[in-house]
Amino acid sequence: MRLTQGTFSFLPDLTDEQISSQLEYCLKNGWSINVEYTDCPHPRNSYWEMWNMPMFDIADPIAILAEIDACRRAHPHRYIKVNAYNSARGRETVALSFLVNRPAREPGFRLDRQEAGGRTIRYTLHSYATDKPEGERYGNS
Amino acid sequence: MLTTDAGIDMDAALRESNVEDVLGELDAELIGLAPVKLRIRQISALLLVERLRAQMGLTTAPPCLHMCFTGRPGTGKTTVALRMAKMLHRLGYVRRGHLVVATRDDLVGQYVGHTAPKTKEMLQKAIGGVLFIDEAYYLHRAENERDYGPEAIEVLLQFMENRRDDLVVILAGYKDRMDSFFHSNPGMHSRIAHHVDFPDYTLDELMAIAELMARQQMYTFDEDSRAAFGEYLRLRAGQPHFANARSVRNAIDRIRLRQAVRLVEQGGRISGEELARIDAADIRQSRVFQGNSAAAAEASARSLL
Amino acid sequence: MSKNLTANERYRAGVIPYAKMGYWEPDYIPKDTDVLALFRVTPQEGVDPLEAAAAVAGESSTATWTVVWTDRLTACEIYRAKAYRVDAVPNSEGQYFAHIAYDLDLFEEGSIANLTASIIGNVFGFKAIKALRLEDMRIPVAYLKTFQGPATGVVVERERLDKFGRPLLGATVKPKLGLSGKNYGRVVYEALKGGLDFTKDDENINSQPFMRWRDRYLYAMEAVNRASAATGEVKGHYLNVTAGTMEGMYERADFAKELGSVIIMVDLVAGYTAIQSIAAWARRNDMILHLHRAGNSTYARQKNHGMSFRVICKWMRMAGVDHLHAGTVVGKLEGDPLMIRGFYDTLREPETPVRLENGLFFEQNWASLRMVMPVASGGIHAGQMHQLLHYLGEDVILQFGGGTIGHPQGIEAGAAANRVAVEAMVQARNEGRDYLKEGPEILERAAKWCAPLQAALDTWKDITFDYTSTDTADFVPVATPTY
Predict the structure, then answer these.
(1) pTM to 2 decimals?
(2) What fold is seen in the domain A16-105?
(3) Where are the beta strands (DSSP E) in C341-438?
């Protein structure tokens, strides 16, 4: 399975050069950047782990790529994404968000159905990875 | 890459790099500083030739670019650092050419574990440009054992060594204190490629700066006041805490104040020429002329001269 | 009080021209709290334009065709609408723009029904006027603050979907009518699994003999959840809750919520009050509300008579919808690019200035009412992605009904083609490429590794819809380029 979260996940995984281009675009727009990672890719998981602090006032994408690489080295088997944040009035939200790392194997989700009244079904998604405890889900990190 | 036979059109290379523009801006913006401008010109020539040699395949390692600017306050160190950042950018040594100014407080933390991320944050912002660390010797407070300065120095050293392509560091401060800083931190000393000393402005140069500042604010000196100001400078420069151009700016501000008071007390009809003119009296009221150098120095430190 | 008449003259029984009754006040300066309206007035032969404008002001506020003494029991100065400015329409003989101001006290707080009944409820049939069009309105901040505004808004919608930085993609289930619930769900599943963010009930899919609403809801939500599991994304299907009664609508909305849908839809023909109610319900129940502008072309399309769609945009933003169909520029339905820009800005911007070439006649501050996501739907396909991104921007829902379901390799492939096209185009735009010019090349390059996109481009590359628009700007030459 291939998790298709993030703005560019239907394209082949971005090269570092392509990531740098996107970061240039974000910096040009004055957006601050942060890197996050997780081993729980449920679509309603709003809070991935932050890798260090968000970066403000950066002039060169190289600084951010260094952080991405450091995160990849520390957590090679987790989903890692980059978010760009627009703090302008009326917006105050993420402007761009895309994956920069995936685990080698993505087992995906199971759809659990609980039959309720009439023909109604209560659905919930269950990520296969979370059958294992944190730290053991996608390889040892 | 060019072959060693093809040769290079130096004039074209110079034109393309636009280095002359930056040097021209430097000339226009800063009065005097002839030795500094010469030094900068030398460095820029070296950097240009380094780049051309690299194109010819004649270099092995990327050049070390970190610098140290020594001199008293107000001698133009920050301004030159800004121009240097532009120059490095024009010559292709840094990608962005912006300047980030940092002091000890930006780099050193107040508790364990605070320093490394703080220093790193400053460095991240400076990547692609120049990090200018003013009064860099304060990073190392030898008398305080629990000082976290050395941690910042460690992080800096690593960056200066490993990330040479991404960032240039310029340290700055008084010459004697920088010398002892380097003495205690040989690692730092070995990473500095270029030392530039910023001598104090000459009295003539300071006078010219004063004239320029006055003119910019639509004031004029007459013969008497010009002579008075010349004397003022001579006396003041000899006293401690003299900050060159900055001191001149402060002096002009105080002169304007005294002129205003004089005109108000004078009353009656005042011409436009009088409103613009600085009189010798506006200058001679300064404590500097009263010969008490200790009081004068103290008052100066509180910008009252 | 009208300048020219004394109280005695003004209120003597009989008929007086509207302009003398106080409805024409050229020196009136509109207050910040006034509601302003701009009408395009075509007076009957022989009717003075100022009198016509005054008549419109009168008939949309307090006037009757003859003087009534009971006026004097009221502070009638306030309740009279005032026509304060009349301009000839450029290049249109016999048409005039009339600016009219209405005091805030004329309107019930938080009621679109009342606002509309007041402004358009009476005046359009008036015989002295050959044709009349409500072009634009300025809603004062004071009045806006009595409305809920969009239940969810663009920012929160994106946060709920966790989708940022690109247009969202949707598709109306086709064929429009006739599928049973189970087969309907199949289309939803294939399209969402393939890569679209949303699928949609059509405006006339409510509850018919061939498919009752409960079956549709059950099967659609099965499909939505299956697709979500397959992709790891939040997906949605706009369940149409429009019904014959408000009670019916609530019943349907509640069921949609029970089944875990993130979004419901309603048709414009449900009526302003129903829409406001369901918008309030949507806010209370954390549901995104999509509005289909069914029926608006009956009155919005002709320049001389009816109501401009931009007024609907304003009213619907106030009423509280989160999505509104607002034109595609390059698709099969009516849409001049300049006018559409005006609609989109009205829905999406925190405030809009006067911009006559986009049909924005008033400065409009939206008082921090949330932003509505415009929806572009109707005859668009992946091959137009560069134009769509250029004309419509990023905060938009691109709906490719035929363009997904009509794909030669199937619905899933159609969806993937659209998704790859939009992502590739956004990537190229961010990289700084001139994507409008290089669009076809960018799509070709992506198509090399995405066979469905190649098939889509091959199938539809020559499709364009080239007709001259009927609703065009007054303030530029009428001929606009066709695509």
Answers:
(1) 0.85
(2) Ribulose 1,5 Bisphosphate Carboxylase/Oxygenase (3.30.190)
(3) 351-352, 364-365, 373-377, 397-399
